[in-house]
Specification:
The complex is a heterodimer of chains A (111) and B (892).
Chain A (H helix, E strand, L loop, with lengths): L1 H21 L2 E2 H11 L8 H13 L3 E6 L7 E6 L1 H25 L5
Antiparallel strand pairs in A: 1-3, 2-3
Helix pairs in contact in A: 1-3, 1-4
Chain B lengths: L3 H9 L6 H24 L4 H9 L4 H11 L12 H21 L1 H30 L10 E6 L11 H10 L3 E10 L2 E3 L5 E2 L2 E4 L3 H5 L5 E2 L14 E4 L1 H8 L9 E4 L2 E8 L7 H6 L5 E4 L17 E6 L5 H18 L9 E5 H6 L3 H42 L4 H37 L14 H35 L8 H37 L10 E7 L8 H17 L3 E7 L10 E6 L10 E7 L3 H5 L3 E4 L13 E5 H7 L9 E4 L8 E7 L14 E5 L7 E8 L7 H11 L5 E6 H8 L1 H35 L1 H9 L4 H30 L15 H18 L1 H8 L3 H7 L1
Parallel strand pairs in B: 5-10, 7-9, 16-21, 18-20
Antiparallel strand pairs in B: 1-11, 1-12, 2-5, 2-11, 3-4, 3-8, 6-9, 7-10, 8-9, 13-22, 13-23, 14-22, 15-16, 15-19, 17-20, 18-21, 19-20
The chains are: A alpha+beta (111), B alpha+beta (892).
Chain lengths: 111, 892
């Protein structure tokens, strides 16, 4: 159980950074995309997502800003920073290496 | 559309971040939940279910994680030995504590007022203790000053005759110096009304012995302490200002007193406190040398009307001084066996002599205020515990953000300190306001009480008390809450872990409240009963509607008794003629007038010399008995025919008759008074009821009355019985006296009822203070019980609701609530009764006519407290009865 949680926590950052690499998104959109694209395997709810977002923001990897559109409530959009991009690249490399190793040892196929 | 923001807030509580940021976070979370809800509804979920599902992840735990993630920087440990850091930290804690208190004004004000009452009462009583007991006497090396005399019945040093004193002074080795003193009331005539001056005759070295010196002029010289040259006076600063307008050229001025010229030699400084005269006689305004020599008739060895004070030599102990005096006295007794009764000498330190009477009173009051403070502490600790339970969330957050246990305890103690500090400050103000009231209430016997004020020592005491108080009421809640907070930050379900012990702690505190209140109530009850019994004592006369005033007829004009009689007869006639006056009389002394005049009483046929009894003597004019309403038992009273030259007569009190003629008729018996060997034989003509002479509480003594015309006193008390308010007569009466003799001072104008009240004053003082403290204790206890019971009702809302839903009647619910309070109340009552039983002995000295363990008082106090604590539960019970099952469910 707790292994699972740690794993998710570690992967959460790379998931969020990857989604923001494409464009700026707000929190609910991020959660929804992770849910959809993982086919429901990975789920972030409000209480686990925002601590991660705030932690990333605090470390300067993403940056949040309020956007107000007429007729809707204001939303907070997050954008990846240059520092965030660097981290994402590094993480991608290490995750790749990790999965390659896993595959070699445990024959887990990496998509 | 639900109000998402409120829903989110309700779930996560307050976040420990700055308000703007918090609002952003709530906004963002609300937006998320709202989006999620919309999607859930779109996917076919029912609205309510969708709301619940969207909100579900937002547990309190979420707030912790969010706040932790959002913190700009991880908590850096305070650099060690960085004092500025600790200072700013503490300053921040204080600001935070102030904000927390400002946010709970109800709690804060109750706590502060409670503490103010506790600390204020202690500061006030400590000011008194400080002024009366702790402040050293205002003389040089006061520890070496002692009163010397043969041991009297009450343990005090008795009086001494002049010749005896000279032998003491010459033969004792343990003393640096000794001096004599006696009271003196000269009449000062000059500008203004004739005035009777409270004064003292003292040995020439009296001021030197005390280590004080005049501010103006010079001290007495040794050659002035002789019969021919003693007409010199020292003035007090007070009379110098009042009577002589602070005339700087006063030294050398000749005053006329008792028709004799007295030269002023000096003025004492304003700082000089005449404590010795105040204690033994009256606060003196003048001093003059004793001026005796051995040849004078009243300078004999057994003419014991002087008091001796001594300064023990350095490095001589009290025991050594006592042994030295015993040795001297033993030798004297061997030399002059007929002059001295056997008995040990006593050396009483002056401080002890001056304060001995008030010590038991102050001990009782100190005990009482300590009780009040303990109750205050218990109450505030109780309030804090209740508040901590409500603040668990906040504390858990702080713990989660890295505040260690020590840090949390510090924060909470700073909050307690702030409360105590505010309470202490207010308490000192209370003490400053209360002290003058206290001084006005205090019996005059408590010397130096009027000087009680809040000085540096009192402030220091209050500050330490405040700190101790903060620890006393703050430590338990802080320890408990900090542990709870850490528990809660580690376990999501920390909710129930510390509830039960907190509840027990709160109940124990209320138990202590009740126990202490019982002790105070019993004390107050015993005093109320004592004062009631005391004022119920029949003094032997009727004090209502009687005005008394003192006059003295001294000087050349009154040298002959006949002159005194002529004048006083005329005064009485004039007083009698005043409208509203029913009877007017004069007496050498009256009961409860702070006088004593015991004369030897020698019955013809059985004279035993020194072993004959001493009897209180009153020289009175014929109407004295009707003015005082002293009843005649047998025989007759005096008439105007009992004049000088007529048959010498006397009237005795029934106590005297019973003691001296138990089996005979006293009427017609012959008695010699004073000297057993000479003087006329006087015939007993009547028996009257006895009076309480010294004090209401003192048992009746033997008394005799002589016609003022036959044994004439010059210092007289005028007694006027009126049909109107006696105080309204004072001005007319004074005028009537001055019409007859303009040179007679009139002083101590008081009603007889005042004298009676004054006799009960020390006990009344203790009673009023214990009533006040008991009242405060009762109120605080009621608040304490109310707090605990209403908290327990709030805590058990769900349980009560379910019981109500399951059909419990109102009576069941009342029984449930009261049932939970009964063990607390009864444990408190038992503990209190026990504590009172153990401590009541301290009150013994102040009681009259009631035993310290009076069962009625114990019972009544317990019942009063029981009723009060039941009443205090009424509001929470009413609240419990209004709980509907739905409330209970909604609460979850």
């Amino acid at each position: 159980m707790s292994d699972d949680r740690e794993l998710r926590k570690g992967s959460a950052e790379v998931l969020i950074l990857a989604l923001l690499e494409q464009r700026d998104r707000h929190g609910y959109e991020i959660a929804k995309l992770i849910d959809q694209r993982s086919g429901g395997t990975l789920k972030f709810h409000v209480a686990s997502l925002y601590p991660t977002l705030y932690r990333l923001e605090r470390r300067g990897l993403i940056q949040g800003r309020w956007v107000e559109k007429p007729g809707t409530r204001r939303r907070r959009f997050y954008r990846i920073t240059a520092e965030g991009q660097k981290t994402l690249d590094a993480q991608r490399r290490s995750w790749s290496a990790f999965f390659a190793a896993l595959n070699r040892v445990a024959r887990i196929r990496h998509a | 559309m639900p109000d998402w923001k409120s829903l989110v807030r309700a779930r996560i509580g307050r976040l420990p971040v700055d308000p703007a940021r918090e609002s952003d976070i709530v906004d963002e979370l609300a937006q998320h939940v709202s989006d999620h809800h919309k999607d859930l509804v779109a996917s076919g979920l029912a609205d309510e279910e969708a709301i619940a599902t969207a909100l579900a992840p937002l547990a309190e735990r979420a707030a912790l994680e969010i706040a932790r993630a959002d913190r700009p920087r991880p908590v850096a440990p305070v650099p060690p030995a960085n004092r500025a850091g600790i200072f700013t930290d503490v300053a921040r804690d204080i600001r935070y504590a102030a904000r927390m208190l400002a946010r709970a004004p109800g709690f804060a004000s109750i706590a502060i007022v409670t503490l103010a009452l506790g600390i204020g009462a202690n500061s006030a009583i400590f000011s008194v203790v400080n002024a009366v007991l702790l402040r050293p006497l205002p003389y040089a090396d006061p520890d070496r000053l002692v009163m010397i005399g043969q041991r009297a019945r009450d343990g005090a040093a008795g009086n001494v005759g002049y010749t005896t004193f000279l032998d003491w002074r010459d033969r004792a080795r343990a003393f640096e110096t000794m001096a004599l003193l006696r009271s003196w009331q000269p009449t000062l005539i000059g500008r203004g009304e004739p005035e009777r001056i409270a004064a003292m005759r003292v040995s020439w070295n009296f001021f030197r012995l005390l280590g004080v010196a005049p501010a103006i002029g010079r001290d007495f010289r040794s050659d002035e302490d002789a019969p021919a040259s003693s007409r010199v006076v020292m003035l007090s600063d007070g009379i110098w200002h009042r009577r002589f307008g602070a005339d700087p050229s006063i030294v050398g001025r000749v005053l006329t007193m008792n028709d004799q010229p007295y030269t002023v030699v000096g003025v004492m400084p304003a700082s000089f406190e005449p404590l010795i005269s105040e204690h033994f006689y009256q606060r003196a305004d003048m001093w003059s040398p004793v001026g005796y020599d051995r040849s004078l008739p009243y300078a004999c060895r057994s003419c014991q009307h002087l008091k001796a004070i001594g300064r023990v030599s350095r490095s001589v102990t009290l025991e050594a001084a006592r042994a030295d005096m015993d040795r001297v006295q033993t030798t004297l007794r061997r030399q002059f066996p007929s002059e001295y009764a056997p008995g040990v000498m006593t050396i009483v330190p002056l401080q002890e002599e001056l304060t001995g009477r008030v010590r038991p009173i102050l001990r009782v009051l100190t005990g009482a205020v300590v009780c009040v403070l303990l109750i205050a502490c218990a109450n505030v600790a109780n309030l804090l515990l209740a508040r901590m339970a409500r603040r668990e969330h906040d504390l858990a957050l702080r713990a989660a953000l890295g505040a260690g246990r020590g840090r949390l305890i510090r924060q909470l103690l700073i909050e307690s300190g702030l409360l105590a500090g505010l309470g202490g400050g207010l308490g000192i103000l209370l003490a400053i306001v209360a002290l003058p009231l206290l001084a006005r209430l205090a019996p005059t016997a408590v010397s130096r009480l009027a000087a009680a004020h809040v000085d540096a020592r009192v402030l220091g005491f209050s500050a330490i008390l405040t700190l101790a108080t903060a620890l006393a009421f703050g430590l338990l809640p802080a320890l408990r809450a900090s542990r709870t907070a850490l528990d809660r930050s580690l376990h999501v379900d920390g909710r129930k872990t510390a509830r039960a012990p907190t509840s027990i702690a709160r109940r124990l505190l209320v138990t202590a409240d009740i126990a202490l209140a019982v002790v105070l109530l019993i004390g107050a009850g015993l005093m109320i009963k004592s004062v009631g019994r005391l004022l119920g004592v029949d003094p032997g006369f009727d004090p209502s509607h009687v005005l008394t005033m003192q006059i003295s007829l001294v000087g050349k004009a009154y040298a002959e008794d006949a002159a005194v009689i002529v004048k006083t007869d005329e005064m009485i006639a004039r007083l009698r003629a005043l409208p509203g006056v029913e009877a007017a009389a004069m007496a050498g002394q009256i009961p409860l007038g702070d006088n004593g005049d015991m004369w030897g009483f020698h019955v013809q046929g059985r004279i035993a010399g020194p072993d004959d009894p001493s009897v209180e003597r009153y020289s009175v004019t014929p109407d004295y008995f009707s003015a005082m309403r002293i009843p005649l038992r047998r025989g007759r009273l005096f008439t105007s025919a009992d004049r000088a030259g007529a048959q010498e007569v006397l009237v005795v009190s029934d106590e005297t008759a019973r003691a001296l003629w138990p089996h005979e008729n006293p009427i017609g018996q012959h008695v010699r008074i004073g000297d057993a060997t000479k003087g006329p034989w006087r015939t007993v003509v009547g028996i009257v009821g006895g009076v309480r002479h010294q004090a209401l509480a003192a048992p009746p003594t033997m008394q005799m009355y002589l016609p003022q015309a036959q044994v004439t006193d010059s210092f007289l008390t005028v007694v006027i019985r009126s049909s109107v308010d006696p105080t309204s007569l004072a001005a007319d009466a004074r005028r009537a006296i001055w019409t007859v003799a303009g040179d007679v001072p009139v002083y101590n104008v008081r009603t007889l009822a005042d004298l009676v009240a004054r006799s009960a004053a020390p006990r009344t003082f203790v009673m009023i203070l214990l009533e006040v403290f008991g009242g405060i204790a009762l109120l605080m206890t009621a608040i304490g019980v109310y707090g605990v019971i209403s908290y327990s009702v709030a805590e058990r809302t769900r349980e009560i609701g379910i019981r109500a839903a399951l059909g419990a009647t109102s009576r069941d619910i009342v029984r449930l609530i009261v049932g939970s309070g009964v063990p607390v109340v009864s444990a408190g009552l038992c503990a209190g009764l026990l504590a009172a039983f153990v401590t009541a002995g301290y009150l013994e000295a102040s009681l009259y006519g009631v035993r310290a363990h009076d069962p009625a008082t114990f019972g009544t106090s317990a019942v009063v407290l029981f009723v009060v604590s039941l009443t205090a539960q009424a509001v929470p019970i009413a609240r419990a009865l209004r709980i509907a099952p739905t409330d209970a469910l909604r609460q979850e």
